[in-house]
Amino acid sequence: MVHVPGDAATIVMRCKDPVPLPALLSHVSFMFFAVLVGMRAGLGALAAPGNVRKLAWIALGLMTVGGMVLGPFVQKYAFGAHRTGFPWGYDLTDNKTLIMWLAWIGACAALGRPGRTDTPKWGSRLTVFAAAAVMTLVYLIPHSLRGSELDYEEVESGTPAAEAVRTGT
What we know:
Elements: H1 21-47, H2 52-79, H3 92-111, H4 122-140, E1 149-150, H5 152-156, E2 165-166
Antiparallel strand pairs: 1-2
Helix pairs in contact: 1-2, 1-4, 2-3, 3-4
């Protein structure tokens, strides 16, 4: 047993199981580079639109792999459920990722296929800037705010841990 100073009621354990380091590092890396490339695309949409289409599609690809594929695997390792956001639950991290991903889907749809060489028009460039703004807002919200949480009282009463995960608290 470990003594933690202060009021024990303020401590919340969120994870059920450890996440393998390769899965976690891959998820974090893809999401980091999605933000890096996405922000560059958003700024480029305003000032240097020459490679905005390519950058936007790269950001979408990185986000798809990091957030929509690897994110649910990290969630499964940590909590026993692949996805606990919309439409199955209220996990804010899953929902933030979905909103951000949809914003980039819209931006890439407005830009057209990635192989085009013409400079994007102002309207489609503004959708890229808007997607970058959505991304910024999403990342300003703390990662696990209203996230999944293991209900230890249910586990102690005999409920299997995979069924004792609550979201949106």
